[in-house]
TrEMBL record:
<dbReference type="GO" id="GO:0097367">
    <property type="term" value="F:carbohydrate derivative binding"/>
</dbReference>
<protein>
    <recommendedName>
        <fullName>Probable glucose-6-phosphate isomerase</fullName>
        <ecNumber>5.3.1.9</ecNumber>
    </recommendedName>
</protein>
<feature type="active site" description="Proton donor">
    <location>
        <position position="273"/>
    </location>
</feature>
<dbReference type="InterPro" id="IPR001672">
    <property type="entry name" value="G6P_Isomerase"/>
</dbReference>
<feature type="active site">
    <location>
        <position position="405"/>
    </location>
</feature>
<dbReference type="GO" id="GO:0006094">
    <property type="term" value="P:gluconeogenesis"/>
</dbReference>
<keyword id="KW-0312">Gluconeogenesis</keyword>
<dbReference type="GO" id="GO:0004347">
    <property type="term" value="F:glucose-6-phosphate isomerase activity"/>
</dbReference>
<comment type="similarity">
    <text>Belongs to the GPI family.</text>
</comment>
<dbReference type="InterPro" id="IPR035476">
    <property type="entry name" value="SIS_PGI_1"/>
</dbReference>
<keyword id="KW-0963">Cytoplasm</keyword>
<keyword id="KW-0324">Glycolysis</keyword>
<dbReference type="InterPro" id="IPR018189">
    <property type="entry name" value="Phosphoglucose_isomerase_CS"/>
</dbReference>
<dbReference type="GO" id="GO:0048029">
    <property type="term" value="F:monosaccharide binding"/>
</dbReference>
<dbReference type="InterPro" id="IPR046348">
    <property type="entry name" value="SIS_dom_sf"/>
</dbReference>
<feature type="active site">
    <location>
        <position position="294"/>
    </location>
</feature>
<dbReference type="Pfam" id="PF00342">
    <property type="entry name" value="PGI"/>
</dbReference>
Amino acid sequence: MDVDIGNALASVASPGVSRESLERLDEQVADAHERIEAGMADGEHGYEALNLPDRTDPDEIRRTVEPVADAEALVTVGIGGSALGAATITEALAAESDTEAISLDNVDPAWVSNHLERLPLENTAVNVVSRSGTTAETLANFLVVREAFEDAGVDWTERTIVTTGESGPLRDLSERHDLPSLSVPDGVPGRFSALSAVGMVAAAVCGHDLEALLSGAAAEAETLSGSLFDCPAYAYGATSYALDARGARMNAMVPYAESLETYSEWFAQLWAESLGKDDLGQTPLRALGATDQHSQLQLYRAGPRDKLVTFVTSEEGTDRSIPETDVEDLAYLGDATLGELLDAEFEATEASLAAAGRPNVRLELERVDEYELGGLLYGMEAACVLAGELYGVNTFEQPAVEWAKKATRGLLGGGEFEEADAVAEKSELRVER
Ligand SMILES: O=P(O)(O)OC[C@H]1O[C@](O)(CO)[C@@H](O)[C@@H]1O
């Protein structure tokens, strides 16, 4: 990916960062890069994620999914990083696959039931993913999916792939039923695991080019260097950090490609769960171009000066002509294509923010394919790791999510948890209809 940070410079944006400030910050980037390189070399927890282009084995993944490789449908049962990597890849590349891929991450009963009713279970692959093997949503949804297969008279053990840690309930299940299984790699937090079996099993079932995904990531890894001016990922991570420090407390991720909508959700977990610590961290917002020009753009352009807008664009892509029209005021559309319209809208929106002095950055892909997607995922992961070094936070842990898990378990009778007791102490001021 290429990065253009020109519209985030203090000469054109407020908040903005001056070139001189970036040059001073580059000294910290060099130190951070040394730390990252050492962590990668030692396979340290978290930094190991940036080794995945060399660690992930496409042949092993293809061999494992072979029993369900021709599936008409794929359901990934997981949550957070155990679902979003797979969902991002399969959505971004859906046009190139005949397999209908969905994720069951949430436990909304109507939503889960509606999805299950639509699946051709006899020709559906089930991709169950959980590092811990104990995540309530994932286990609950798996039990519901398994029951649906049994009710339909389909042998779920013939349709299920498990990706989990070396031990835990899912590992036990895979051994008890001799299910094809892969391991979540050690030292790779879920939100950084898209380029491992966690995200790549789904890609394999859908017939995507695993080597191209990893090659794109490897090419991005090659750019990691001691200067933000030589490394697109570090340029993005450092600029986001510097803008947050100058008041851009939020970062709106706005891909101009419908196929990258889930990528924004993946980015939101990566950025929030990695950097949101010690009262620090930049809040990720999920948006989509051109759609959000008709909604959130008003706030981005005329609301508080507390946001960075990150655009993701692709140079090439499928196009479609707009038919001629006799509606005089719309005749200009008949000479264009939908792709030209989308590109014009992106450039107009980018310029609209620049004209209002609102900082924005452009992430440029050549096209949305496996190679470019691998580079984007790896690049954002590296940007996040760098930002975590600059913030001085523990990028790779997520202790703040545990309180609600304990409360949930306590509320369901899964043990005695003071967190569950606290739920009953909610302060109330009800205003009823
Ligand atoms: O893979 P697991 O253990 O089911 O965890 C799923 C997700 O839950 C979290 O641990 C947060 O609760 C994420 O970091 C992770 O991606």
